């Protein structure tokens, strides 16, 4: 245990040192070009190059949940590799994000994911969309911190609460000090540790005498069902639903767009997405192998005991269990460093993302448009601490943190993704359609229930079944409703169609005179420039922002481009209206 604690302490000191060094190295970044300090913290001065950018975007996805969850599903009898959807799902998510979303978001000079919503739908709608986005980031951080505590307790028998608090404090501290720069540079170290730690562990686990040939156990039952897995016919729609959730629901996250918007150019933003997609697949390989090793092990020959992890309700801990019981102590401690790295690489990103959205889209744009840059920086620092503390408290005190995470990630998919498509690609959508889409998505998703939270459904979709869930430790039988219908994807499509339909309906009713102008209480159709909606110049720091997307960019000098990017549609508006118009106030 002493050796294990020393190894973990050494790793944490290394991460902390890199985070502080990154903050010190970039403390004057953007000053020469006039970039606000708050924007530098949020998007790193928009000068993140391919090397650091590729690592930090990959590390954001390859977190504790990614490597533990992939190993768990490969190990679980009845699921196997066929149901380990995260590697391909998230890889395709990054490809789709790079092809269709990275370029328009980066070229328009946004600072957070919520900027286009506030520009088009107004401050209040931006605030509503902030809720599922915040829930997703906080619950994700809480879930992976909880996983870290359980992992450390398995391998080195350390107090769970202490391990969670120390890990969270380190991540919060270097994020507080250096913002995106610290997060990005520590991600490089963390991803290297994950890759090396897991790959070092795999050969030792494979050669353990208790482990059978994983090639044989992939297709033949030895100690449990083959780990290759299969998809039953009645589960096909559920599999498709979950895969679409990963592929499309993995796009509308601030952690993704924070890296897209920090890239040197729109082209770089796309390339970073493709690099991260390849990185996700490569980093999943050792997790898949560890899950396969767990399924091929005679646990009776190990110190773990004759009862396998799945019968102790510890299938979600298969990765640390393999490290602990099938590898020599020095290797398991090295692998533990990999798991710790995975957790912190995701926790710091989520905390920074949540604080960025709050400081900019809620505090600055919705309440204090005259706030100084220093004030915004301090709001960010306070919220980094608050959101980090909230995630830590939930990891320690809430037993249903995983259920909350599952539900909130579904809401991001069902509510935010269709709105993102509408705001970027569908002309004519407005606040009325956005509100209707929000309500449709929320009701249809919540109506399907959530077994992990023991939330019963009030909408029974076609093909629903009642299944018995047996708790192996207590022997209790729980009756749960399982929806076999792809209701999450259907809810997302209904939300999108609702947005388009109600937007055009409202537009028709007001513009045809069937509804009087006084009923346009959201100023979404008849008002050319609403107080509620953000002007196109409000969301950028300067009035001259143009992007030459194919221009050659030097990663470290490309901050200069930020001062010369120009939005042509903004200039067109400025040419046709007086400079002193109240609709063209900026936040400078």
Describe the overall structure.
Helices cover 63% and strands 2% of the residues. A two-stranded antiparallel ribbon has the order 1-2. Strand 1 and strand 2 form a beta hairpin. The radius of gyration is 25 Å and the shape is globular. The chain has 20 helices and two strands. It has 588 residues and is an all-alpha fold. The protein has helices spanning 2-25, 37-43, 50-61, 64-75, 86-107, 115-121, 123-156, 160-206, 214-217, 236-249, 254-262, 266-295, 318-326, 329-367, 373-397, 401-425, 431-446, 487-511, 559-562, 568-575, and strands at 465-470, 477-482.
List keywords for this structure.
about 600 residues, mainly alpha, about 65% helix
Quaternary structure type: single chain
Strand element count: 2
CA distance, first residue to last residue: 54 Å
Please give the largest β-sheet.
2 strands, antiparallel
Structural class: mainly alpha
Cα Rg: 25 Å
Percent of sequence in beta strands: under 5%
Secondary-structure element order, as H and E?
A: HHHHHHHHHHHHHHHHHEEHHH
Helix content, binned percent:
55-70%
Question: Which geometry do the CA atoms define?
Answer: globular
Number of H- or I-type helical stretches = 20
Compute the average pLDDT: 83
Q: Largest beta sheet: what is the strand line-up?
A: 1-2
Low-confidence parts: 541-588
How do the strands and helices of this protein lay out in sequence?
Elements: H1 2-25, H2 37-43, H3 50-61, H4 64-75, H5 86-107, H6 115-121, H7 123-156, H8 160-206, H9 214-217, H10 236-249, H11 254-262, H12 266-295, H13 318-326, H14 329-367, H15 373-397, H16 401-425, H17 431-446, E1 465-470, E2 477-482, H18 487-511, H19 559-562, H20 568-575
Antiparallel strand pairs: 1-2
């Amino acid at each position: 245990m002493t050796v294990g604690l020393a190894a973990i302490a050494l790793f944490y000191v290394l991460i902390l040192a890199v985070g502080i060094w990154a903050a010190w190295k970039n403390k004057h970044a953007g000053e020469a070009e006039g970039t606000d300090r708050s924007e530098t913290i949020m998007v790193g001065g928009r000068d993140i190059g391919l090397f650091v950018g590729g690592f930090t975007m990959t590390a954001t996805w390859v977190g504790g949940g990614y490597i533990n969850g992939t190993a768990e599903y490969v190990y679980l009898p009845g699921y196997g590799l066929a149901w380990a959807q995260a590697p391909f799902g998230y890889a395709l998510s990054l490809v789709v994000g790079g092809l269709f979303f990275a370029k328009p978001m980066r070229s328009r000079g946004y600072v957070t994911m919520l900027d286009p919503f506030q520009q088009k739908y107004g401050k209040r709608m931006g605030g509503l969309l902030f809720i599922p986005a915040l829930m997703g980031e906080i619950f994700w951080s809480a879930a992976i911190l909880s996983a870290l505590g359980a992992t450390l307790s398995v391998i080195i028998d350390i107090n769970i609460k202490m391990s969670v608090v120390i890990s969270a404090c380190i991540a919060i501290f270097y994020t507080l000090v250096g913002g995106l720069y610290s997060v990005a540079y520590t991600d490089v170290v963390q991803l290297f540790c994950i890759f090396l730690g897991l790959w070092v562990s795999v050969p030792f686990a494979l050669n353990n005498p208790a482990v059978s040939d994983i090639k044989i156990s992939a297709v033949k039952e030895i100690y449990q069902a083959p780990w290759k897995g299969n998809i039953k016919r009645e589960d096909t729609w559920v599999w498709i639903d979950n895969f679409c959730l990963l592929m499309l629901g993995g796009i509308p996250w601030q952690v993704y767009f924070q890296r897209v918007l920090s890239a040197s150019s729109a082209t770089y933003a796309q390339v970073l997405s493709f690099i991260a997609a390849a990185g996700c697949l490569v980093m999943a390989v050792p997790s898949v192998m560890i899950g396969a090793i767990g399924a091929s092990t005679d646990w009776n020959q190990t110190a773990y005991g004759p009862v396998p992890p799945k019968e102790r309700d510890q299938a979600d801990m298969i990765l640390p269990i393999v490290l602990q019981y099938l590898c020599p102590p020095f290797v398991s401690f090295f692998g533990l460093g990999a798991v710790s790295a995975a957790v912190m690489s995701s926790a710091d990103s989520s905390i920074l993302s949540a604080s960025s959205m709050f400081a900019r889209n809620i505090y600055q744009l919705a309440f204090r448009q005259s706030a100084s840059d220093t004030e915004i920086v301090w709001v960010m620092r306070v919220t980094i601490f608050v959101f980090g503390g909230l995630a830590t408290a939930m990891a320690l005190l809430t037993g249903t943190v995983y259920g909350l995470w599952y539900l909130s990630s579904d809401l991001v998919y069902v509510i935010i993704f269709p709105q993102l498509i509408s705001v970027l690609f569908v002309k004519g959508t407005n606040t009325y359609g956005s509100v209707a889409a929000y309500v449709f998505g929320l009701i249809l998703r919540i109506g399907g229930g959530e077994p992990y939270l023991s939330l019963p459904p009030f909408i029974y979709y076609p093909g629903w079944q009642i299944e018995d869930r047996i708790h192996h430790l207590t022997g209790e039988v729980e009756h749960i409703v399982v929806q076999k219908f792809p209701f999450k994807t259907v809810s997302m499509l209904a939300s999108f169609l609702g947005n388009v339909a109600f937007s055009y309906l409202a537009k028709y009713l007001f513009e045809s005179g069937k509804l009087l102008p006084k009923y346009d209480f959201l100023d979404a159709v008849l008002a050319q420039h609403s107080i509620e909606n953000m002007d196109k110049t409000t969301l950028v720091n300067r009035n001259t922002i143009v992007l030459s997307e194919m221009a050659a960019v030097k990663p470290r000098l490309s901050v200069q481009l930020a001062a010369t990017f120009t939005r042509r549609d903004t200039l067109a508006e400025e040419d046709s209206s007086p400079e002193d118009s109240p609709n063209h106030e900026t936040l400078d």
